[in-house]
Amino acid sequence: MEKRAVFKNWWLPILFALPQILLILLFFYWPAIAVMKWAFTLEPPFGGIAEFVGLTNFEEVFADPFYWNSVAVSLIFALCGTCFTILVGLVLAIAVDRRLPGSGLFRFLYILPYAIAGPAAGMAFRFILSPERGLMASLNAAFPDFWNPAKYGAHALILVIIIFAWKWTGYTFIFLLAGLQSVPRSLTEAAAMDGAGPIRRAIDIQVPLLAPTLFFLLVIMMTEGFVGSDTFGIVHSTTGGGPNHGTEVMVFRIVDEAFKGLNYSGASAQSIVLIGLIMIFTFIQFRFIEKRVHYK
Amino acid sequence: MRLTVLQSALASVLAATVFGAGPAHAEKTKFEFWYGLSGDLGERVQDACRKFNDMQADYEIICTSQNSYDTTLQNTIAAYRARKQPAITQIYDAGTLDMMLSGAFVPAKKLMADNGYTIDWTNYFGGIANYYATAAGELNSFPFNSSTAMFYYNADAFQKAGIDFKPETWEEVEEAARKLKTAGFDCPLGFNFDTWQMMEQFSAIHNQPIATKGNGYQGLDAELVFNKTKFVDHVKFFKKMVDEKLFVVKTKQLGMDIVPAFTSQTCQMIQTSIADHGTIGKTLPEGVKWEVAMLPVWKGTQRQNSLVGGASLWVMDGRPEGEYKGAAAFLNFLATPDMAQWWSTVTGYIPVTKTGFEAMKANGFYDKAPYKGRELAIASLTYTPTSQNTRGIRLGGFTQVRKEVSTALEAIFMQNADVQAELDQAADRSNAVLRRFEKTYAGQKLN
């Protein structure tokens, strides 16, 4: 039997939803509309009369080679970050799911990094992976310039991806663990009795049944990697977009352009392009990958 | 029952918000001052605010650090757009033109005249005042913490390496660097990619333009030309020195910036602000001999005055009338000879007025050990009357220009990029910034 709550007055549900609606209007639609406006005008930093310039801001953005560089950096960052967090999260989840002694403690330890703010994690890793005094210092002493994120863009990019992955693996881990625990025990137990090892059981039974969770995480992590606040926080506190634009992800470039360069219009145009890109990605994911996901 | 408790609690919270903090402070007019200094220098600003508040009964200044110069500008803009701007804000050199064209401030001279203070505006050092003044010489903001770049070297290390001269030219710096290297010092000279010392100050003392139109003073249509001046050769020289391991890059990203590199005696020579004079004196171990000198020039150069750095105080418009009386009183208080001298003593910043400097010279301030050498900053700033190239830099979006140049320097020194090609690219990109600024403020004239 289904239980349903029925509101007698038509305005009562609206009243309950009103705080939420107001917050969304205030913090989401209003800024979004301002960004739309600024992207097509030249907005003076202190306000005042902004001249309509049509698509000029977009033309400038697209004509800038460093803009395309930031698109490429963002793509690499989000893709590597997504793969890393999901794969490592999956391995950890399968390990904890086996209910060995101490798995409760590990479950807690694995989720912990997620509670740490991006910039704080960034600062910590700046020391841990510093080329001169961190973990890599002895390696650098033996092989000069083996690891130097201040000098090589590729090293710096690896550095920020590691921090991102370290922070977000706990998140994917929790979802995957929950997913695993909803896989009927009888299936894995039956497989075990048939002689399937843990790896075989994971590949043939657990992972396919996790497909909806994996798909959800794929969409979430790609979006997080592209526009998440941690992405900005980590880059800002470790490499500052450098060296020589090597870690300049799109969100960092937007903030830098707006607040350092006081170019609100250019930054707004970039935001709109970024939103467009996210929509395209999500569409592709739903269109082509979701088809291969089997829901129960 | 419970509801009434909740209701009364709610009511009292509401009342507190509406009627303000309480009657105790009601008679004082409060106003806000935002500043960009942090750490030790930020504490000294708080001291100044406390002194002011203790001294008089009518006003209370609330001083808040915004942590850095660029966040102060950003926060001031955001606050102004939300009509919540502070009465006074501290804006760094690079934000001067952005402020001037904003129309969001009360000019310094007008504020003081309106509130009945007479200030002798000619008392400010020309090189300092020109940076913040209109082309006609009217001050828009109050010079506050002014500095210039200096050359610091470790005299003990020099002695150990058998160097018996003070490096005044870059040829001599090179010679000293070689001798230091031979004597076993790994980092004879440390430097970072801050363009202030290497590009701006270098260009000024060598009388080289950074941009056309008198570094932008004569119009918003100025174009950057730093890629066609002696600066290019200077960068090439630095590159050669880096390749020979005589000059070493020291940045925060690499684990140690130039000032800690100098005070930990890792590097024996650096160029940095006179504002660091106090910190360096306090941080170097006792007994280590070190010297400060004017920035070196290339042999055969007619030395020009160096540029003023640091920040000035802007009074924002749109505040209630009463706050301006307080703001004027505070600015007048800062300008008193006693305060000027105190500020200059506890920081490394230079006195901004001629009378302030003379008074400090007369009472022997610069002869005392920890302060010795600071007078050279004034000597450097006032070395010659200002020329078109040494008056200041009046370019819009200058923070972005600095970033383009420092990124180019990073590519040159860290990734072996071609000097000319990188600087050309930085100039092109910076010119695009200027053109956008010009369009944004189309129809406005520089005054």
Which spans of chain B have pLDDT < 50 for at least 5 consecutive residues? Answer: 1-6, 9-25
Strand fraction of chain A equals under 5%
**CATH fold topology of chain A:** MetI-like fold
> So, CATH architecture of chain A?
Orthogonal Bundle
User: How many structural domains of chain B?
Assistant: 2
Biggest interface, residues from each chain: A-B, 32 and 31 residues
How much helical structure, as a percent, in the residues of chain A? over 70%
The helix/strand class of chain B is alpha/beta
How much is the average pLDDT of chain B? 89
Radius of gyration of chain A: 23 Å
Quickly give the structural class of chain A. mainly alpha
Low-confidence stretches of chain A: none
Q: State the helicity of chain B in percent bands.
A: 40-55%
Task: Let me know the CATH homologous superfamily of the largest domain in chain B.
Answer: Periplasmic binding protein-like II
The total strand number of chain A stands at: 2
Please write the CATH class name of the largest domain in chain B.
Answer: Alpha Beta
Question: In terms of quaternary structure, what is this?
Answer: heterodimer
Which CATH architecture of the largest domain in chain B would you pick?
3-Layer(aba) Sandwich
Summed over residues and divided by their number, the pLDDT of chain A gives a mean of 89
Order of helices and strands of chain B: HEHEHEHEHHEEHHEHHHEHEHEEHHHHHH
Walkthrough of the structure:
The complex is a heterodimer of chains A (296) and B (447). Chain A is mainly alpha-helical and 296 residues long. Chain A is 71% helix and 1% strand. Chain A has a two-stranded antiparallel ribbon with strand order 1-2. The two termini of chain A are 23 Å apart. Chain B is globular. Chain B is an alpha/beta fold. Chain B has two domains: 27-145 and 306-380, D-Maltodextrin-Binding Protein, domain 2 (3-Layer(aba) Sandwich); 147-305 and 383-439, Periplasmic binding protein-like II (D-Maltodextrin-Binding Protein, domain 2), CATH 3.40.190. Helix content of chain B is 47%, strand content 13%. Chain A: It is found in: Cell inner membrane; Cell membrane.
